[in-house]
Hints:
Elements: H1 3-6, E1 11-14, E2 17-23, E3 28-30, E4 33-35, E5 38-40, E6 48-49, E7 55-60, E8 66-70, H2 71-79, E9 87-91, E10 105-109, H3 110-119, H4 151-166, H5 171-177, H6 183-194, H7 211-232
Antiparallel strand pairs: 1-2, 2-3, 4-5, 6-7, 7-8, 9-10
Helix pairs in contact: 4-6
Amino acid sequence: xxxxxxxxxxxxxxxxxxxxxxxxxxxxxxxxxxxxxxxxxxxxxxxxxxxxxxxxxxxxxxxxxxxxxxxxxxxxxxxxxxxxxxxxxxxxxxxxxxxxxxxxxxxxxxxxxxxxxxxxxxxxxxxxxxxxxxxxxxxxxxxxxxxxxxxxxxxxxxxxxxxxxxxxxxxxxxxxxxxxxxxxxxxxxxxxxxxxxxxxxxxxxxxxxxxxxxxxxxxxxxxxxxxxxxxxx
Length: 233
């Protein structure tokens, strides 16, 4: 004789669903009731399995609206109450369709739930992703870094590109030599890390050399010429 043969099934009302009860064995039934002039007897409801492997049941809530609920949430809602904040239903070694409480159902965190699935063999842990390597030196790329090269290699490419361009090598040829086909990006690296094409700030010109200075000087000369003409009269 097994435990399931000797166990006494216990039923409890489902909060929010006054016409139904759920048992600690994971079954759901309607309760005897009078509605719309008719008498309804108790019926154990049919369950179906979802694509995710959990048992579902159709119910009508207190407003008479039809809902589809997972059986395991109804069992714990009736026998334990609402889940604590940040907790969800955990299935034990019996699997996702075994909704017996407390043998196979409990509340736990998401991390605990995922650990259960791995421990029970229902989910294979994902293999860790291999580290991303620099395409130039083969070193491990910094976490969160985009692109194919590490920062040190990018800096070195920029310096080398700047040296080549300063010597008259074309941008296309520099890209081939450095194995960097993205020419606009290479040109930017040369400017950023090698100082290529960056013009020094213009030296301060004396006032007479600036546009404003030249205009002032011209006005002064015109004034002097007009005064000189008046003296001759």
